[in-house]
């Protein structure tokens, strides 16, 4: 396997610039490597926050003496990211919009802008690396050298066609390095704070969902055996694994371990009932190979901030896979993504559609 580094044979490159410090420093790094950089700010929403980000990006480009372009893509963002997020919650999922956004909106729109601007390559400020497998020639994402900032999980849905055209200038950098370089260059965004996880929601996501018409009807709280314990205020108000705010008194804390949208039931259990044995992943995107030919022993992350754990991945009918965890793990939620690793290399990943909890499985029999 060989890390894909800078290749300035094609000198002109489109860099996605969000107005933050990471993309600003990426521009400087690419310029030092010999690229002709064009800063591209994708406007995913039509609001003052996006326009302010575009102004910050333009100020950086002016300081660095590079071209800046604004690419309007709010319709694609609504279609590919916001709409599926709302629909997912309405169907009982807990979506992870940033993962799908990279592959379905952010990178495709940046590459479309690159084509328009005469750039064969595109770059982003993600903390990750790209490598090429020597035997197959396939492209894979690798973890950043700074494990605390690694965003490889968020890039697990990128396709071969996308990876072939991408450059990640910050793959070998730390956040401290980036801040120092930004200050040394006098960039106006050197001290700009980190952006929030879900960029299109200000405040409580439940208010956003209500505004989008997602009903939030009260219902019953039950244990894994179906015993009614109380009432809930609406299923979208609760998160799988939640402990506080359930509103049921007991000798030990209850946790949310499931949601039954067909019955409008919130399922709770004690801590030992929160552990899961397997998850089912629908139609995973494989980067390291075309398809899963045989059971795969690897590591998996069940949430962005979770640690990798050992598992065995088995093919199922219809293109899905079952991920059998070597040891029980804290529960995750359908709608989150499972991402598979071998060492630092992303093998692939996909959306979790089923969570195997021993307590819930027993209650269903």
Give the helix/strand layout:
Layout: E1 2-3, E2 12-16, H1 21-32, E3 36-43, H2 48-64, E4 67-72, H3 74-90, H4 97-116, E5 121-123, E6 128-132, E7 139-143, H5 160-165, E8 166-167, H6 175-185, H7 205-211, E9 219-222, E10 228-232, E11 255-260, E12 265-269, E13 275-286, E14 296-301, E15 309-315, E16 321-330, E17 337-342, E18 345-357, H8 358-364
Parallel strand pairs: 2-3, 2-5, 3-4, 5-8, 9-12
Antiparallel strand pairs: 1-6, 6-7, 9-10, 11-12, 13-16, 13-18, 14-15, 14-17, 15-16, 17-18
Helix pairs in contact: 1-6, 3-4
Short description:
By secondary structure, the chain is of the alpha/beta class.
Structure description:
This protein has 365 residues and is of the alpha/beta class. The protein has three domains: 184 residues, Rossmann fold, CATH 3.40.50.620; 57 residues, Adenine nucleotide alpha hydrolases-like domains (SH3 type barrels, Roll); 91 residues, Elongation Factor Tu (Ef-tu), domain 3 (Beta Barrel), CATH 2.40.30.10. The chain is built from eight helices and 18 strands. A six-stranded antiparallel β-barrel has the order 13-16-15-14-17-18. Strands 4-3-2-5-8 form a five-stranded parallel sheet, with helices on both faces. Strands 10-9-12-11 form a four-stranded mixed sheet, with no helix packed on it. A hairpin with a 4-residue loop joins strand 11 and strand 12. The N and C termini lie far apart (47 Å). The mean pLDDT is 92.
């Amino acid at each position: 396997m060989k890390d894909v580094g800078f290749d300035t044979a094609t000198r002109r490159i489109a860099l996605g610039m969000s107005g933050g410090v990471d993309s600003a420093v990426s521009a400087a790094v690419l310029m030092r490597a010999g690229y002709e950089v064009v800063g591209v700010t994708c406007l995913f929403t039509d609001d003052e926050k996006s326009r302010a980000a575009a102004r910050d990006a333009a100020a950086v480009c002016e300081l660095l003496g590079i071209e800046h372009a604004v690419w309007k893509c709010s319709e694609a963002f609504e279609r590919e990211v916001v709409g599926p997020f709302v629909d997912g919650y309405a169907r009982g999922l807990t979506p992870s919009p940033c993962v799908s956004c990279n592959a379905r909106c952010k990178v495709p729109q940046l590459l479309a802008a690159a084509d328009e601007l005469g750039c064969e390559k595109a770059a982003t400020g993600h903390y990750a690396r790209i490598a090429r497998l020597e035997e197959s020639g396939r492209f894979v994402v690798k973890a950043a050298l700074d494990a605390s900032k690694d965003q490889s999980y968020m890039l697990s849905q990128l396709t071969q066609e996308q990876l072939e055209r991408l450059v990640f200038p910050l793959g070998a950098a730390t956040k401290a390095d980036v801040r120092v370089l930004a200050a040394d260059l006098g960039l106006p965004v050197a001290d700009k704070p980190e952006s929030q996880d879900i960029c299109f929601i200000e405040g409580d996501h439940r208010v956003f969902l209500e505004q989008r018409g997602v009903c939030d009807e009260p219902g019953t709280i039950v244990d894994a055996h179906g015993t009614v314990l109380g009432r809930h205020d609406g299923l979208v108000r609760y998160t799988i694994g939640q402990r506080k705010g359930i509103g049921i008194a007991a000798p030990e804390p209850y946790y949310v371990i499931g949601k039954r949208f067909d019955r409008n039931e919130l399922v709770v259990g004690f801590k030992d009932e929160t552990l899961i044995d397997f998850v089912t992943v629908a139609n995973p995107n494989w980067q390291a190979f075309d398809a899963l030919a045989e059971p795969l022993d690897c590591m998996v992350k069940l949430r962005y901030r979770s640690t990798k754990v050992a598992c065995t991945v088995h093919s199922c009918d219809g293109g899905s896979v079952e991920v059998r965890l070597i040891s029980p793990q804290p529960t995750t939620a359908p709608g989150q993504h499972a991402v598979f690793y071998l060492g630092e290399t992303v093998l692939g990943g996909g959306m979790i559609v089923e969570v195997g909890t021993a307590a819930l499985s027993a209650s269903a029999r």
